[in-house]
Amino acid sequence: MLPISPSRADHVAESLAVAPLDMAAAAGKLRLPAGPVLNREDIERVHSKDFTAALYGESPGGKRSLLEALLNAWELIDEQGRPHRYEPEQATRPLEELFEKVLVQVGGTYFACRLALEAEGFCYYLGGGLHHARYEGGTGFCLLNDIMIAARKIQAEGRAALVWVVDVDAHKGCGTAELIHLARLRGELRPPDAAGNTPLPRIFGLSIHMARGWPLDEETLAKARPGHAPLIPSDVEIPIEAGGEARYIPELAEGLRKLKRLSQAALPDLVIVVDGADPYEYDGLPSSSLLKLTLEQCVRRDRLIYDYFKQRNIPQAWIMAGGYGERAWEPVSAFLSTV
Ligand SMILES: [Zn+2]
After folding, report:
1. What are the structural domains, with CATH classification, of the chain?
2. How far apart are CA 230 and CA 217, in angstroms?
């Protein structure tokens, strides 16, 4: 009952009259065997061991733990534990199958990074963008954080050391920010101000988003989800107040300059762009209505990012992220038609 249009990717591809590369073809192009590209280690590199065990039905709750993780991530239960925007008796498939779907989505984001790196160019993935998924579990329709799983896997394989995440979804990239922060605390990523020549990989994140609305501010979120850690800001955090659309493009341009300063003037080996279409004025999700970019502004936003990295020869992996209702495909299509 969520306003997620299953045909969004098809609309984009049809409007551009291109045949997208599918997952199997992407695997072939990268000379990878068909089948799952991600393993449990890739998830545990980013998310907590307890959460991972729950997903694989190995926690004390058994299979019920996976179901609960899914219900939480898609917010399908209310505070009293009753179904919300979800009618289990109307289900045509077991909800648990969503886990497999999410693993495929996360694998797609990884493929997009690999293809972008391989071509030293640009790859747009018509999926992914699960930026709300946090260390201990999923939230905001995001079960696993594909951005961080892909970035950390790429780094672990030695394909990139410095990765930037540029998140322009209407909603704050709170899960990604938390996962970057926690990885730094564990000593797995280098902090922004550490001098010296430590070989640790680095990830810096930018998020430009609605100042208010979902995901809720810290206080409201803590109330809504007792026991959750407070939200952590991104390295470059750009909240836009309602009515502040004219500030959007200049602030984003300044944000890219800040990312470079944080990186001690180094440019990334790879950028992952979380290209939410939900700031679009015709987006169908009520909780994204506090930011209303026109189609022209959405395209200018995307071109600003695309041109910045293209001019510097930096591989760019774009993922589609948020976008709801019948017109969510329009900003993606309008941008891609200019590339
Ligand atoms: Zn969003």
Report:
1. 8-21+104-336 (3.40.800.20)
2. 9
